[in-house]
Every structure is written in C-alpha cells, then in structure tokens.
Design brief:
By secondary structure, the protein is an all-alpha fold. It has two domains: 1-158, Tetracycline Repressor, domain 2, CATH 1.10.357; 159-293. Helix content is 71%, strand content 0%. The chain contains 13 helices and no strands. The longest helix has 29 residues, at 160-188. It is globular. It starts with a helix and ends with a helix.
C-alpha cells in the first residue's frame, strides 16, 4: 500500500490538469456536443495524463540524488525511499506503452505527437532542463504538442490563432515559474538552487519578459476573437466577452509568481487560488456561451 501511494504521488496527478489543452480543438472546432468526438478527445487526454505521469517518474529517478538534499523535494517518494527506482522505471515504461498504444488505435498522427512529446520530455529530464531559456521553450512546445494532438485525435486542423495564444501563454507560465524560483530564493536569502538553468536567468529580465508576454497573450487572444474567420465560424464576435477573464487570470498569475512569491510553485498555487480559479471558470463559461450559446 505504501509503495502504491508513493507511485501515485510520483505520477503527480495534480499536474495532469495541464492536459486539458488537448481538449482545446474539440471546443473551438464546435464538436463539444458530438459524442464520438468527445470520447476520442477524452481518450487522448487520458493518454497524455499517463505520459505525463511516466515522465514525472522517470525524472524523479534521474534527480533522486539532488532531491535528497533539497528542502522540499527530499520528501518525494523515491528520494524518501518509499518507492524503489526499479518500480518507478517499470511503471513509467508500462504507462508509456499503454498511452502510445492507445493513441495509435485512435490515429497515427495522435501517436506521432504523443511520441514526440514523450521524447522531448525525456530529453528535457536528461539534459535540456539545465539550459536556460531552452528549458522554457521545451515546456512551451509541450503545450503546443498537446493542442496538435487534440486536433489529430478528432481530425480537424489546429487553429493558427489557438496555437499562437497557447505558445505565448505557455512561455509566460514557464518564465513565471523560473521568476518565482529566483524571487523566492532572493526573499529567503538562499543563493543556492538545485536547478542549474536558473544560473542563466536574471530576475529583472524575467519580469520584463513576463510583462511583455502577458500583454502579447491578451492582445493575441483579443485579435483572435475579432478575426474575420473566427467571427464567420462562430456567427458573431461575442467571443471577446471572455477576454477580461483571460486578462484577470494573467494578472493573478503575475501576482502569484512575482508580487507575492511563496514557497509553493505558482503553477501549483494557482490551482488553489480562488481568484485564478474564478478567472478560469469565467473564461470557460464565456467561451462556451460564445461558441455554443
């Protein structure tokens, strides 16, 4: 039982919420009310959840020694000795095979994007996460692959605007996580970090990048809502009513990452933050109303 709970914690199910991006094409392609499309998308989301868990398990095995000397990461199951490295690796392999096999049954393009996602995340865990800026680019690419996989699952073209907004938002989140880590270390008076890539970042530069990316994300989203193709596809320009909620979510993430840094990662804190959750719920409700209402 202890090992099972340890494995579950290692797979980080709380982080699987990121895989909702796989469902973006389903919503924006106006297929949310069609059962066959919903099931295919649900299967794709589940596959990416399994792949995410496999990657987390592999990453924790790779980082076990550094995690053991980290003030918080030392409590991770593998570092704490609650889960063996062998069990974690076997579980990761089984989950990856199941996920890729399931994707192949749905469509070969979905399997291709899933395989690329897995390969780049393995490369990230092995080496690329140690390289400043490239690490955030890999994170952003992971979100783009989720959207492309979702489009492949239901065989619709991925919207260029959705891909642009996703890339900007994911890069914004990635820089926010790095900025938070530097801000917290500065506040705590701790100049040491177990993340090698942080040595290549500067907090003032990250803040500027986040402000610029936040503005660009909002601008790109508003431009998408007024785009001629968008208006023609949805029959009106009322999708713009969701933009204030998008802006609120971005402002709230800035607050969590830069203005009120705490020990928790901002990507974890935002899942418990009522204002951020309100922005997400408001944006989702407005989008559904604009597209399906």
């Amino acid at each position: 039982m202890k090992a099972t709970l340890g494995l579950l914690r290692t797979l980080r199910p709380k982080q699987w919420v990121k895989n909702v991006f796989v469902a973006a094409p389903l919503v924006f392609a106006q297929h949310l009310t069609e059962t066959a499309y919903v099931w295919r998308t649900a299967a794709a989301v589940l596959a990416f959840c399994l792949l995410s868990g496999a990657v987390y398990a592999f990453n924790d095995v790779r980082d076990v020694e550094s995690d053991r000397v980290h003030p918080r990461k030392k409590f991770r199951p593998i570092a704490a000795g609650e889960l063996s490295e062998r069990t974690a690796l076997i579980s990761a392999g089984v989950l990856a095979v199941i996920a890729l096999g399931g994707c192949l049954l749905i469509h070969w393009q979905l399997a291709m994007f899933a395989a690329i996602y897995l390969a780049q995340n393995i490369a990230y865990s092995v080496k690329l996460k140690q390289i400043a800026f490239l690490d955030v680019c890999i994170i952003a690419t992971g979100f783009l692959l989720r959207v492309l996989a979702g489009a492949a699952a239901i065989q619709v073209p991925a919207s260029g605007w959705v891909l642009i907004c996703t890339a900007l938002l994911a890069t914004f989140f990635g820089f926010g996580k790095r900025a938070h880590e530097l801000a917290w270390a500065q506040k705590a008076g701790d100049s040491k970090s177990t993340r090698a890539s942080l040595l290549g970042y500067s907090l003032p530069h990250l803040k500027i990048a986040m402000y610029v990316l936040g503005l660009l994300t909002c601008a790109a989203y508003v431009a998408y809502t007024f785009d001629e193709h968008t208006v023609r596809m949805f029959g009106s320009d009322r999708l713009v009513i969701s933009s204030p909620f998008v802006a609120l979510g971005i402002l709230r993430f800035l607050s969590l990452a830069l203005w009120r840094p705490k020990d928790d990662s901002p990507t974890e804190a935002m899942l418990r933050d009522p204002w951020f959750l309100l922005a997400v719920i408001g944006a989702l409700a407005a989008i559904l109303y604009a597209i399906y209402g």
